[in-house]
Amino acid sequence: MATHRNEGGRGEGEGTEQSLLASAPLEELAARFGTPLYVYDLDAIEREARELDAAFAGEPHLVAYAIKANSAGPIVRRLAAAGCGADVVSGGELEVALASGVLPERILYNGVAKLDDELRRAITVSEHGIGSIHMESVEEIDRVAAIARSLGRKARVGLRINPEIDDLGTHDAIATGHDEAKFGVALADVGLALDRIRKEPSLDLGGLTVHVGSQFTSTDDYRRGAAKLFAIAREVPERSSFRFLDTGGGFGIDYGEGCDARPKDFVRAAQEEQRAAGLAGIRLVVEPGRRLVASYGVLVARVVQRKKATPLPWVFVDAGMNDLLRPALYQARHRVVALGASSRPKSAVRVAGPVCESSDDFGAFELPDDATLVAFLDAGAYGFTMASQYNGRALPAEVFLSRAAEPLVHGRAEVAAWVRGRVGEAAPKNGA
Fold it and tell me: Residue 356 catalytic?
């Protein structure tokens, strides 16, 4: 991959192995499998997970990978093999975790609107069910308890608390711990929620959890959330029987604007607050998603059309907001680089996709005027998992790289299948 940066996504001096993406024949892969094309480095993803695991320095812990970041089976399997559990937010993600080798007791189920059938599955998937159903409202407590009673089972549960922290240092769309967020039990209702759980013999309270937001580039807000969690936990009479305290995820990466905090810094911050609250020894759970996968995936796209314009000319590529939604959804920026060698000077252009929305615009970048293929960097998280077939476009293919094996390929969901799904038997065949 002919670019001028460390494609591993690490800071200077961090780690010793370069990501496979730095040397992967992305142009050959694009020619073989077509574009748009996601390419991932499984080895680097596993290495990132093992380094995070080592940061706990032997203290009781669980790294529960947030499957929503990237639910591809090859990735979840590698992370499970590296010792990760799973944070899931739907029945579909629960099944991906189980099929990928994550043990039920290492699965946590978050979300404000879990379906009854999904809860039944979570409770009955093994003798004791999954590790924890994290309940997010007083009302949900009653529903989970009723379902467990109807099954003659005892559900292992956690209580998600909204720490009500304002002025979070992240985008509003991914800030989840402020006082108007839909997530978690309000601080004023925590006592009521705990009383309700105590009165339900069908519920087994394993611990408490918070999640204040995503893509934090410093540990400040994460520490504030952890401190709130531990302050509440130390006042709970049942704390001595807690199996976990879960400080959530939010570990950021460098999308090109800097990120000083490393995963070990978030772990250290949580452990320091846990010790200060006198709760050392209780298993500490974290729920990283983006941090484990984002830097180790790229989206390869082909230049389709150029257009002269003021103030910048347009470069239209075949990947759009249907393939990589983050820029349109919350103004995220992914660096775009040209693939292949070029002797032509770079100039400023505006890169956009083919979708009929003005927000299908990735921003301004420096590219040579003979660029035919480009790569969107740091696209391993919230890329394919948020993709759609909007405007009748095919889902991208995915390639998973590892030094120990041939590339794994998830083929493209072709447009013809989409057409059949929309019009049924009336769909034209063989171009007729």
Answer: yes
